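Reproducibility note. Readers wishing to regenerate the assembly model reported in the main text can use the exact inputs given here. Chain order matters: entities are listed in the order in which they were concatenated for prediction.
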Amino acid sequence: MNTTGERLEPVTCCAPLAAPALSEQEAKATAELFRALGDPARVRLVNLLATAGEPVCMCELIEPLGLAQPTVSHHAKKLVEAGLVEREQRGKWAYLSLQREAVEKLAAVADLKEVCC
Amino acid sequence: MNTTGERLEPVTCCAPLAAPALSEQEAKATAELFRALGDPARVRLVNLLATAGEPVCMCELIEPLGLAQPTVSHHAKKLVEAGLVEREQRGKWAYLSLQREAVEKLAAVADLKEVCC
DNA sequence: TCGACGTATCTACGTTCTTCGATATATTGA
DNA sequence: TCAATATATCGAAGAACGTAGATACGTCGA
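Running the prediction on these inputs yields the following structure tokens for the assembly.
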């Protein structure tokens, strides 16, 4: 999809829903951010990270999510790409943690009282 | 999709992302809510309603969105079903307005500091 | 009554998404 | 060095999605 090589940073590029003049670009970034949480598996993954409060090994997510390992890897990648989750390699293990600032920015985007991001 | 007749109310059924024990049902409801805003056209539609501050005739949304009339109708329906937008019939015109409480609830769901919906 | 207009639905098409088995790569421990 | 383990990627199948043309329905004004 992105052939130019420039990476979109949805979390930093999107504007509040009530922004006076939402550009096409901003709308796309905002939609991508919301879409990242538009799947039950990813909502549960984020929930697991939020309640854990500390980085969680990816291997410990497979069972609670009830999905195959490639599927969990796929969803984790989506969340990392959206900026909502951070991935940290520790030897052969991959640890995921919540990007709390990104999630808070998401809440700010949905906040109609917010004027600016 | 829903053959039993029971209507899901995503806005009232979903729980915060940081909820201690997110059920499968709640995760699905939360995902549906986020997914409703997971398309640029719907983000712009919500933005138009948010900045208008008053009900907007659907016929006035076609041009700014740059989409065909059936497509706008389709997106509007999705937003109404998600509870984010209210639809009001006035003669042959359909007026859309933002369900501000629902959008605020969405922001609360994304708020990690919130304990309960 | 009739034509114009606004809207929803039907249908179809191409794209994207979710899922998982198979497989490749890398790291650890023996 | 070798087997076991964790993870990512590839490839494929089925479902869901976005879009718009055609069409049907209802309302308004003449």
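We highlight two features of this model. The interface with chain B takes residues 17-20, 22, 24, 27-28, 30-32, 34-44, 46-47, 50-51, 98, 100, 103-104, 106-108, 110-112 of chain A (CB under 8 Å). The first helix of chain A runs from residue 10 to 13.
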